[in-house]
């Protein structure tokens, strides 16, 4: 299966390793800065011969016109995801899009419509769904071990400093990124919405820019979500931890069971207690995550490869990516209006929050 990577920045190494681990043929890479491509090949441990066998492009449209591809993954700055993904889909190529899938609901809806029109598979890159601990929680949820859910919570307490934001002029901007909820916390928000079931009917949130005056968007946000099925949930996400990334927790509390995932990216089981003895005694498989990206990219790429081969939807769909995007935008909208927001949202964009913290 011929594969190409578009965007060779910070997260790109996870894409390359996942593609190669799943036996994909790396046909081409694309980045406007050729040094980024060289750096990526070095991080991947490519020999000169291996690097020479991969075609290099500075324009993804040229890549799409010249290469015969089955799968592309996009690891560009967030604000370029939707435009690039649309071009890939129009070319009839299946695509994995890094989070967030877009920065506006209109763009997300366009990608979903295009994918159906072109019969192309689109996967939103929410790789933490494949964490072993997350899979265990999901399995227990689906087999009824939790009973009826009461409430849930996700906390993302990471650290991003001026050096991080200075490495890309798109980071922390409303036009190309968003803030701590859209960039760093959206994986946890995806897991929360997935686990709680259905859709939130109301969202109330507060965001602030506390310690990063050189960015436009928030560096911390807190929200309360009420789901249609009665579950209430909280979100706390921020990048203001002094020191290194601290934790990402996900907790579900039900009438017959409680479970809390932790570590730096919800990859370990910190607590579990179930009324069902079999569920309570089930052995937990722990995994060591090398960084906040975790190990899920390999499984996500494997699933996408199999989805193409078996002609089925991927485990994480474009609709899932839209759901996570909608939730973050709802928090932003609530902060801007000072009121709870009712879902579903029809069309909201990060651009609507330009200047939010300038008064």
Give an overview in words:
The structure is a single chain. This protein has 359 residues and is α/β, with parallel strands linked by helices. It folds into two domains: 2-128 and 308-317, NAD(P)-binding Rossmann-like Domain (Rossmann fold, 3-Layer(aba) Sandwich), CATH 3.40.50; 129-289 and 321-353, Dihydrodipicolinate Reductase, domain 2. The protein has helices spanning 12-21, 34-43, 48-52, 60-66, 81-90, 105-118, 132-142, 162-166, 186-196, 277-281, 296-310, 318-337, and strands at 2-6, 25-30, 55-57, 71-74, 94-98, 122-125, 149-157, 200-208, 220-227, 232-238, 247-254, 257-262, 268-274, 341-342. The chain has an eight-stranded mixed beta sheet with strand order 13-12-11-7-10-9-8-14. α5 (81-90) links the parallel β4 (71-74) and β5 (94-98). α1 (12-21) crosses α11. The chain is globular.
